[in-house]
Amino acid sequence: MRVDIGDGVRLFFDVVGSSLRPTDEEMIDKPVLLLLHGGPGSDHSGFRPFFDRFADTHQVVYLDHRGNGRSDQRSDPSGWDLDTWADDVVRFCDALEIERPVVLGNSFGGFVTMRYGSRHPGHASKLVLSSTAARPHEEESARRFEELGGPRARELFESIFVRGEPFDPDYATVNMPLYNRRAISIGPRRIWRNLRVQEHFNQAFSDGFDLRSDLANITDPTLVLAGADDPMTPVGASEEIFALLPDGVGRLEVFDDCGHGSYIDQPDATEKVLREFLAD
Fold this sequence. Notes:
By secondary structure, the chain is of the alpha/beta class. It has helices at residues 82-96, 108-119, 138-149, 151-161, 170-174, 195-206, 212-215, 235-244, 262-265, 267-279; strands spanning 2-4, 10-16, 20-22, 27-29, 32-36, 59-63, 102-106, 126-130, 222-227, 250-255. The chain has a single domain, classed as 3-Layer(aba) Sandwich (Rossmann fold). It is 35% helix and 17% strand. An 8-stranded mixed sheet has the order 1-2-6-5-7-8-9-10, with helices on both faces. The longest helix is centred in the first third of the chain and has 15 residues, at 82-96.
């Protein structure tokens, strides 16, 4: 499904679960769990089917960012920036009359969630920052990739994320299998990618990406999830996010034997923590 959020831009989304829970006496509104995918340039498919299970308590909404996946503006880079993507969350919610969602962002989606939480405090009921970072941790990531995959893995990481060079297809076969402790098999037709968005954003990332000042403006209860063995967003990045959130706002959970996206490597433990946070 697509919805027009203004200026003729349509964002693709998918929904699991009803918005109302029936009881004998009334129909009760269920809260929305809105998921912002990683990438950039990817789509929401990496979240599924894991997050479908939360449809018992929430209406689960998967969103493809502008320019990403199946959403519009795939060739115009004018809106490929964090401010636009963050504001799109509000525009999307307005278009569908979603109020006070729980917003979960993984990796690049966490960047969008941090900027959204900073620019629109109070719009969400809660935030979840999964395997993300407020700034590059280049040396630590490069070292971890080299430990896991040798000098070639380090060189590929540095060429793309430090020097801002065009995406090398070898990264998909050399580095991406190192993201997780658990082997992942993804067919070539599962993910809709837009490499132009990825290359555009990676250049900005290597030129001085920094969201640390945004964190002080976040007022919504925020759960930070991290994998102890994550090479892309090392655990120190999540510890930094937690330390920079206002007092009493954040909660940090670090999962052992876990890489990028704790729901992939530690699904049961991640579900337990998320259900506690969502029900609190």
